[in-house]
Specification:
By secondary structure, this protein is an alpha+beta fold. The protein has one domain. A three-stranded antiparallel β-sheet has the order 1-3-2. Strand 2 and strand 3 form a beta hairpin. The N terminus is likely disordered.
Length: 124
Amino acid sequence: MVTSGQFDNFRSGQNFGESVGLTVTVAHYPTGASKNNPIERRLFSQISKNWAAEPLTDYDKILRLIRKTTTTTGLRVRAYLDTKDYPLKVKPSAQRLRELRITRHTALPKWNYTIAPSNATNAK
């Protein structure tokens, strides 16, 4: 499962799938429904406990507190600061959309779809 908008657009899902030779299934949580995301419930609650009453003054401190987060059941957290600039409102061309191998799911097709790599015969 990926979160935090890693597949906010079809192109990133397609690129990821092609780079690893896998078909990628994307299931976005609709706005306001992220409370149903098990990662948010299990992970973020532990991070919040870990940095409670700590002033979050800089990225290094935030990352240090996130990385220190553990649970008795074995949860360990890796975190890094992504400093890349991401352009806003980038829309793929009609040609690019035709090239993408997107299969929308029956349930919530705007939120759930599968992206096959261009070389789908090699997809796992």
